Structure formats: C-alpha cells, structure tokens
C-alpha cells in the first residue's frame, strides 16, 4: 500500500526550512533519475498514533496537514533506493548541493553527525599516540609525479590552481586529493634518527577529487576527512599500526554507528595507489551494495624512497622509513543513512544522534498549557543534566502529530510525550523510533528524574544494540557462500554478496567485474576453517574473498 | 650582556626534532632578514639553576651541552623582534614552512594551541545559538563579482582553479578567501519567511588569500579560521549580533589568552570589503605593533541585495535580510606568541597551554632512579586525574638542566622537580615559567594529591592573571593621549600607540598612514569623558581613535 506523507516547511532546531523542490534539484544536480510519483508507505502514520485523546489533533485526516504542505514526499525505500536516499537528505536537512557541480553543503543536522564521528575518533587517535597537525592544501604538481602508481591513480582526478594573485603560476598547484606527498616532503626534513620515530600524526581536513559521478556524502568533489600518517623504523611496526587503525575504525563502526562492517585486506587490484597493502572496512547498505567506509594503508617504503625520507638507525646505517596512512571521511554519514534509514526517514543510532530524545508537550485547552510546558521543561533539564542530548519542541505553530512525524523523519531515537493527564499522574509516554506503532510505545514512566534518566538511558542502550543486531541479521542473510563462478554470478544477480575461495589472477578479477559488476571488496580477516579451492580456477586457495557491487 | 643558549635536536613529546638550519630557512622562506649573530641573554641560564646539588649536572659549563648542539639559537627579543619570533616558532616546533611560498605547516605543538582556541570558542558559539556546518571551498568566479566592494577588496588576492579532472573549466573557480558569497547563494534558497530567521551558523575551515608578504601564523597564503554567518529580520538584530560576537572574542582574548585587546569600530577606510561596519579587537604585540586579532562585521543588506536573499515578513512584505559575519583565525596563535614570549622562548597562558605542568624527575645514582620515577609517575597521575594537562619528561637521554631549558623555551607554565631528597620528604619543588630564577621557585610542596592539586591550580590561576596584568601594564604604558598631529607623529615615531580625537576625512587618514606608517586601529568602545577637538582639523570630534603601526 502506498500513500503519501507530506512534510511541510518549518523552522527546525538547526536551520531554516528546506527550499521547495530542493529534492528535485538535488537529484538533478547529482545526475540521478527524476523523482518518481509521490509515494510513501503508511508506516509513519501508523507508527505515531497519539495514545490518548488529547494527543490527536488531526484524527480525521489520518495524517498531518499544515501550511506549506505542498510537494514534499519521501519515496519508499523499496521502490527506488537512490530517490529515497536523496529524499532523506533533503527532508532531514542533512545536506544541499553547492553551486559547483558535485559539491555539497553540509547542513547543521548532517554536520552534527560528522561532529559525533570526529569527537569519538579524535579521542581514539590521541589515545593511540597520534597528534593533530595541519599541512597546506596546495601541493606542487611535481610532488604528485614522484611516486609512480600514486600519480597514475590520482592524476585524472586533480583540481589545479594555475593563477594566484592575478598571475599565472610558474608551477601549477594541486589542491590536495590526499596528503602523502606533502607529508613525506616534510617528514624528510623532520626525521633524522631512530630517536625521531615513530612519528604519528593526523589531520582533519578537506580534500578534492574531481569525480564525474557524484552522490551526496558518498562521493563529492570536495569532502571532509581525517588522514593519519605515520613513519616507523621497521616494517613490522608499520604493519601493526595499519592493523591497529583499521581495528579502531571497526570498533567505531560497530559500537558507535551500529554498522557491522567486514574488515579485511583489499586485493592487489583494489589497493590504494602507492600502498603495499590496503585494509578496509566494508559495510552493507540497505540496498545491499557495499560501501568502503574506511581504509588503512601499509605504504611500505614507496613514499619514503620517492621522497628520500631516511633515518639513521641504532647501528648508524641510513634506512628509509616504513609508513602508513589511514582515513575516514564524510562518506561515513552516507553509510549511517543507508544502513539504518527506513520509509519513515532517517534512523540514527543513539551514540551518533545530534538529538537523542525529543520532548513533545501536548495540550488542547489554554489552561493546560502552563502545567504541561513546565513539566516538559523540567524533564528536559533533568535529562540534559544527565548528559543526554535533548530537544524540547515547544512551538505552538505545529500540531503534536506533525511533530511526531517530523522528528521520526529526522531519526531521533526516543520521543517523550507529556500531556495534561501525564502531568496529573507525574508520568510520561515514551516512544522508540526503531519500533513502529504501539509496540514501541510505553505509558506511565515516572517523571521522577532518577527513574526517568535510568529508563531513558536503558532504552537508548537497547536501541543502540538493537540497530546493530538488525544490521547484522540483514548482512548475514545477504552473504552467500559460493564455490563456483556460476554460484557467484547468481548471488550477485540476486543483489547479494558472494563469499568464496579465490586465488585467481588480476585478469580474472577484472573479468568478474566486467561480467557481473561486482568487485572483490576484501579478503576478510575472519576466514572459515574449511578447505578451499578457488571458485574460478579450481586451484588451491588460501583465502575466501567477498565480492559485491559497491558505491 | 649577551651570551648564547643552544638548544640541541631532540625528540619531543609531540614531534620529531626540528631540522637543522630550519630557523634560517624559515626566515628565507618568509623573506625576512638573515639571522643575526647568535646571541641570547643569560636570563634562561639564570632562571633554571637546579636548586640542590643533585639537580645540576652541567654546573661547570653553566649551560647544557648535548649531542646535536650545533647552530640553534634564539635571537634576543629586544635585538630583533622578527628574528626572535621566527626562532621561537622554529625552536618550540610550532610551525614550519610549506613547499609553496607563503604556506605553513602547523606542527603538533602549534596546532594544540589552535585546538585550545577552537575548544573554547566552539562552545561559546553554540551557547549563543549558532550551529556548525560546512560550505564548499570552490566558488564560481561570477559570485565574487556580485558585490562591488567585495570584488574590489578580494580580487587581487585570489587563487583560481582553472583545470579539473584534466579539462579546462568553463568557469574558473575561486578557492574561498571568505564565504559571504557562497553563504548568501545558499541562504537565498533556505530563507523564505520571517520564521526562518534568525539563521545563525558557523564553519571551521581553511581559506586562501594570495598574500605577497607573509609571516608564519600572522599572514599566510592559506590559513585556518572560523567564520560565522548570520541573517536577521531587522537591522537592530544584526547590529546586536555583530556586537555580541566581538564581545565573545574580547572575553576570549582577556580570559583565556590573557591578551588585553582593545575592542572598537574600524574607520570607513579600514572596514571589511562588503560591510557597513566592522568591529575589531586590536592587540598590542611585544614590539608594540598592533595585531588585528578578530573582527565582526555588520554586513547590512549589501550581500542580501547582491544575491537576492529575501524573506516575507509578518505583514506579507518581501524584505532583504540583514546580515553579519565574524572570524578568528590561526593568526591568533601568532598573537599569543608575540604578547607573552620572552628571551627564554614561548610563554603560554595556562588556559591555552597544551602542557600546563611538566614534571622533571632527577636522579644521579642508579638506586635512586626507581623511587624518583615512581613518585614522579604518581604525581603525574594525580594531577591528570584532576583534569590538568601534564607531561612527565622521564627520558634518560637528557639532563635535568637541559629539560628545564627546553620546557621553559616551550612556554610550559609550571615545572615540578622531584629528586631523591624530595621523595624522602614527600614533597616537590615547583617553578613558575613567568617568574625567573629563585623568586619563581618554591620548595617543599607536599606530594599529597589533594594539597598538591590545590597548590598547582592556584599557581596556574595566578600565572593566568599575572600574564594578563603584565600585558595590561605594558599596553597602557605604551598608549599616548595626543591632541595634535605633531603629538601623534611623535608617539608613533617612539613606537607607541596614539589615542586622540578624530573627525577628519578619509584623505587625512590616508595621509597619516603615508607620513607615519600608522593607521586607525579602531574607535574604541571605551571613550574618555573629556570634550574633544579633532587632532588633525580642530573641528569638533565625537570620538577618539587609536593610531598604530600594525601587522
């Protein structure tokens, strides 16, 4: 059944209303299909019935109507995943397109998710011995040419500054696509002896890659990321560091973003331009396409040889340093949307949510208003004091039903409803975003701060782990073990991931890509115990690989 | 008396050793004078005499000698302020030059100061109702041309991207020098009615201005900053916002950075390109030149008219919004260096210091080592647990005397020394960075955590306010009240700031600049009560202005 939910213009907590037709514009700008016929499942209407009489203000229509309610719709996810994704980004005010093709404006609600990513990782990076610093974004073109495979990988995607201060520059400048070259230029000046190692730094920065096919968050001309860079005295230390950082990313994905990524090693074909080995975390999106959500590279001595980054070891010998680099970007925000969102809109894991609890006060008569608002305010204050991220939506320009729909669409994990009867009984009603309808709604939770705080924190923890469990089930039911190319092709054609033993050539890998659209996402760290024969060649295979279509 | 202190290469907490001759290179790169003959006052040697026998390891030489001790010196501040500044930046490992002329690498110790600025301001911005977001850095060239005075102000300084993905672009792109134009392009799409106002956002970003004369932190081709942008329904609201934000900056400067800035309004000549009014905080550096340390602009309707940013007011009328923008940049780090530093090196206000307390354990005999290190570690843990930023320098590759000098040069506010006798007596020795020699040194402070913690916090508070008081005295003794142009010229020629009544023309203002090198820094908010006659024309003057040479 397909009906349509319309979300009117409003001033949200974070930012002004999204321009009308902006969804359409987003699609156009990012070269995607035009919007489909307006459609939206009835789930949202079903999931937010106000429980008592004084909660429902638009019972007859069955859905919220309001001024500005014109052409805003969310395409059902099952109908068109891409259109759904763009609708979420527009309606939840996560991002907008920039004036230059393929660029993106990250709006406050989307940026707050990126800030949650930063806050967590920044602490972890420091705990693991890294310091933040900042390198210039302009890199002499000659630097990019110094490492052979690096220039091959990046030169088609470069943005070049050729004019500065009104004059043609003698040497054109690259706007950094990544910073290995300039980092090595500086490391060469800073590193002299083994005492200067390990050198472990990170920077939060913008980078530019001239992509032809773009998609908000997932692939944009300019994006935000962190890039770690380290130099070590031995290959073992560099390998340990590369593994340590992919592990930091894996823990972050599971524990914070509730995304059950599969961590593993990239194939030779898919390895970063300039690295010996690339480790990756691969996430399964709601359409079962893979998203490379973070990478960690063992660079070996490739850049240190190209840039002459040497140190004097304990025996007085000159050696090239061993290096790593690793990165997570704003792409991860796209991963969160596409992992947890549903037809109602965004669904945020509590640990990533800019707002964890929204409080909706409900009153009908004027003489009820003060009591309800006072109670709502004191509940808000108590929860804020407990360290929770709380939004009290006390505007009287919107109906409670409208607010329910709006904050569900914005993915807020918990909603607290407070009406006159609740004030009398000293209790509140609490609804979970991840459990639609009456099932997710509990009445009569005490307003007493310590009881309410404990209840809310328990529910947030439950939602956090429930989202992860749901994503694990979805992932595992969509990975097929295959032992032949035929089985692989069938799995991919069904939209699934195929996992099978692989020891075939790079050429065979490219053939799979051409014939099925799938690539090797990784050789997962977790390997099965059974004996293996390459699915393509029948030769012995030491590892299974995972194949999937990807973003 | 001039002697020389040499600081050898070492592996610091934050980063590897600074390359030899890097100070010289810094000077060369930033087009400054070559280093003067090595010279350094004896103050540092005097200020760090180890108090007891077991603290001095190089008594005979009177200064620390170590491997790598080659050509590292800090020019005395009084001898050559610029050379001193560059020496501090190099020796304290705050920054290095990038490979492209005028660009800068911000090293971990310098970046940590920037992070302290960010941490404080980010909270204040949110408390005052602003949300963070992110705009693309590439701006279509045509945008810059839309606001007449804006294009005039910025076009000579632009970096242009003309090639992307291997192709010549149809429209060249500006690498943002500031974001008013692209912000207004987006605001125009987001703002519809008075309900969408005020719209108050901020972004932390890099910006590029093709400066010809550069200086680390103070003026670089690329720098980091925050830029706030707001839109309001009335001119009064915009004016209040512009004033509110210069007030946030002023409080930050006084309370956190211990810099007694003078807040005021810029003259017409010095107003931001595109603003109606510019408010500024002006700081007096150690050489008595002024540093514009932060600005807040009332943009009026200049950009909203250029970009058609309109809203429907409560009466249904279309109106252009009223706007502000405001910024503080990495230049502020330069301001901290040049306000508080002395011949010994950097001197950091405790609230800005990446390390507030350094602990130096001291032992001579092997059997003393364990006891001393254990005590030092437990003191470090206790202070860290109390929320202090603590570094335990327990390497045995350096002498205590060397460490004293090194951490003084890095500007750490407090040093705790622990030797065998201190372990026996359960006490420590504490030295203040801002009070040289024996005067700043106190013996016998109990190691008992609660006593030590309270003592250390009190001392840090004292240092914080002492640095501010010292800077206020310096500032006030270098501002001269003038009532004629002759007096103004004399004050400026003595290197001072001149404050006097001013109501003369823009042409007169430019004449002062040509003849004296000084500009109007601001019309300070704090105005004297006496009657005024313009120092230049003798006409009535409503305000006094402050004139000074500036960075």
Automatic annotation (TrEMBL), chains A, B:
Its EC number is 6.1.1.15. Keywords: Aminoacyl-tRNA synthetase, ATP-binding, Ligase, Nucleotide-binding. It catalyses: tRNA(Pro) + L-proline + ATP = L-prolyl-tRNA(Pro) + AMP + diphosphate. Residues 52-73 have a biased composition (Basic and acidic residues). Pfam families: HGTP_anticodon, ProRS-C_1, tRNA-synt_2b. It comes from the Eukaryota. The lineage of its organism: Eukaryota, Viridiplantae, Streptophyta, Embryophyta, Tracheophyta. Residues 41-50 have a biased composition (Low complexity). Residues 41-73 are annotated as: Disordered. HAMAP family: Pro_tRNA_synth_type3. PANTHER family: PROLINE--TRNA LIGASE, CHLOROPLASTIC_MITOCHONDRIAL (PTHR43382:SF3), PROLYL-TRNA SYNTHETASE (PTHR43382). Residues 101-349 form the Aminoacyl-transfer RNA synthetases class-II family profile domain. PROSITE patterns: AA_TRNA_LIGASE_II (PS50862). It is an enzyme of class 6 (ligase). This is proline--tRNA ligase.
């Amino acid at each position: 059944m397909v009906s349509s939910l319309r979300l009117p213009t409003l001033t949200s907590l974070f930012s002004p209303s999204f321009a009308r037709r902006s969804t359409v514009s987003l699609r156009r700008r990012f070269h995607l299909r035009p919007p489909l016929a307006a459609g939206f499942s009835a789930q949202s209407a079903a999931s937010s019935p106000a429980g008592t009489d004084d909660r429902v203000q638009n019972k007859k229509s069955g859905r919220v109507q309001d001024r500005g309610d014109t052409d805003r719709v969310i395409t059902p996810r099952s109908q068109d995943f891409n259109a759904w994704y763009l609708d979420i980004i527009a309606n939840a005010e996560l991002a907008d397109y920039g004036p230059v093709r393929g660029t993106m404006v990250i709006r406050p609600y989307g940026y707050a998710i990126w800030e949650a990513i930063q806050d967590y990782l920044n602490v972890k990076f420091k705990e693991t011995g890294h310091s933040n610093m900042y390198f210039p974004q302009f890199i002499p073109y000659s630097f990019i040419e110094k490492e052979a495979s690096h220039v091959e990988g990046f030169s088609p995607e470069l943005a070049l500054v050729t004019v500065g201060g009104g004059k043609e520059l003698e040497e054109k400048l690259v706007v950094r696509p990544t910073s290995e070259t300039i980092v090595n230029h500086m490391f060469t000046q800073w590193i002299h002896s083994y005492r200067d190692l390990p050198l472990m730094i990170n920077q939060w920065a913008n980078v530019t890659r001239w992509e032809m096919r773009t998609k908000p968050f997932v692939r944009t001309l300019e994006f935000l990321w962190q890039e770690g860079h380290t130099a070590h005295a031995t290959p073992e230390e560099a390998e340990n560091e590369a593994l340590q950082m992919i592990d930091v990313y894996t823990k972050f994905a599971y524990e914070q973003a509730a995304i059950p990524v599969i961590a593993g090693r990239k194939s030779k074909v898919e390895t970063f331009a300039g690295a010996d080995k690339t480790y990756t975390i691969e996430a399964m999106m709601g359409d079962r396409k893979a998203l490379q959500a973070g990478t960690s590279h063992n660079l070996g001595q490739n850049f240190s040889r190209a840039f002459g980054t040497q140190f004097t070891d304990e025996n007085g010998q000159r050696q090239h340093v061993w290096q790593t680099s690793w990165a997570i970007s704003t792409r991860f925000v796209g991963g969160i949307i596409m992992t947890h969102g549903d037809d109602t809109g965004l669904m945020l894991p509590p640990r990533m949510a800019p707002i964890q609890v929204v409080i909706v006060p409900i009153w009908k008569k004027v003489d009820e208003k003060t009591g309800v608002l006072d109670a709502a305010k004191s509940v808000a204050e108590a929860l804020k004091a407990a360290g929770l991220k709380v939004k009290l939506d006390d505007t009287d320009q919107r109906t409670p039903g409208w607010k329910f729909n709006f904050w569900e669409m914005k993915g807020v994990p918990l909603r607290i409803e407070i009406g006159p009867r609740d004030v009398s009984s000293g209790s509140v009603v609490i609804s979970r975003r991840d459990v639609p309808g009456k099932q997710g709604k509990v009445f009569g939770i005490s307003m007493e701060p310590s009881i309410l705080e404990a209840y809310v924190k328990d529910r947030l923890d439950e939602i956090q782990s429930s989202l992860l469990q749901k994503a694990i089930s979805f992932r595992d039911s969509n990975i097929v073990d295959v032992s032949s190319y035929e089985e692989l092709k069938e799995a991919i054609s069904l939209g699934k991931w195929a996992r099978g033993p692989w020891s075939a050539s790079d050429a065979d890998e490219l053939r799979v890509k051409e014939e099925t659209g799938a690539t090797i996402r990784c050789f997962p760290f977790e390997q099965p115990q059974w004996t293996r024969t390459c699915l393509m060649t029948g030769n012995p295979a030491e590892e299974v690989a995972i194949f999937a279509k990807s973003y």
